[in-house]
Amino acid sequence: MDLYEHQARELFAAHGIVVPRAEVTDSAKEAREIARRLGGRVVVKAQVKTGGRGRAGGVKLAADPAAAELTARQILGMDIKGHRVGKVMVAEPVDIDREFYVSYVLDRAAGGFLAIASAEGGTEIEEIAASRPEAVARIPVDPARGVTSAKAAEIAEAAGLPPRTADVLIRLWEVVTAEDALLVEVNPLVRTTDGRILALDGKVTLDDNARFRRTRRDDEADDAADPLEAAAAARGLNYVKLDGEVGVIGNGAGLVMSTLDVVAGCGARPANFLDIGGGASAQVMADGLSVILSDPAVRSVLVNVFGGITACDTVADGIVRALDTVRLTKPLVVRLDGNNAAQGRAVLDARAHPLVEQVTTMDGAARRAAQLAHAA
Fold it and tell me: Which of 45, 171, 225, 347 has fewest C-beta within 10 Å?
């Protein structure tokens, strides 16, 4: 789960990393009052879970409280890369001497973490890495050993960071371990003209598998979550909303990702990612179909299942039972293969729903779903 910037900064502060004073609001009028409390001159920042806010006009300096209210009014409601701005953070500005970039990210292939740091912060690290890769240091971190004083010094030296940033590197690692984070990023980490080291912006991704260990339930609330994703999460579904017209259900993340690619290759756009995993019970299928059919952009639905531990006849039975509880309003294309595929197809044939048709290959099923979506 990604956190908003203000949530990330709260975690940083809790672990001893200095951040400028700031408050969050969804009201332009309250932004004026916050600016007054912070001394008048402030930075107003859109709170959305995406980068490029500054370029989109979502980060602006306001000279006084009246300007803060006007600026907040301009930013609230903006669309930034598909994310609607529902809140702004009003923060005190700082006089910057230098900007740096530091982060820890899970390196699944290596079975550890990777420290990424650069003496050039303030811009997207991908741009720096692409234009001048030598300016970005990448240092492996053994999770069992962590970031000691020696390791922090190694990272700082490799990236050309001031020695005083080593303490921040240690504390950022504490955020990783204490908060079950998969990514912790500060961009920029700055040295002010009076010599202080501050985190001006932050990005944190927490491991959803460790949610049961966390107590910050209110902090984790996502007021701007997509309503379909929120509905799917409430049903325990692994669902991600996309900008297409073909709804996709599959069993296994790899198969679903492949299905999205095949649908795109057929000239259509997937409307979602939905992995039902190993359990395609009637309730799971009903919940999945209910969420997908609630998306007004969906014009057809593709169910692509390869039977393994869960046999295809069990999946087919789940689909049939789901059709008894969910009103199917869009054409449904089903491809079953693998364990008990013939039996599963027979179950669907016996149900003979007028909006359900079967195709035996993934390519053929994706092609048919795309045709139906275009014809709708």
Answer: 225
